[in-house]
What we know:
Blueprint: H1 12-16, H2 21-27, H3 35-41, H4 50-64, H5 76-87
Amino acid sequence: MTFNPTGTRTxxxxxxxxxxxxxxxxxxxxxxxxxxxxxxxxPDLETWDEDxxxxxxxxxxxxxxxxxxxxxxxxxxxxxxxxxxxRKVPAPAAPAAHKA
Length: 100
């Protein structure tokens, strides 16, 4: 038992326990090399990543339909210009006074 006259929570119980990281890490299989890893290691090697090609094709399809990601800003001034265009919404017309 440790000296703790005020009874504050010290976390000693947790710190005494065995570390869980190694046992959790050993539960999962080791990560296998992917095509992306091979491309990084050997940039001059010509590789074919079917999943990446499919992803790029899908993005091109979405962009053609107008559903793709918006363009990134190249400068702060340009982003203000784009936001200014978006925010300009015409004010609703005031209702005409009704004469009785």
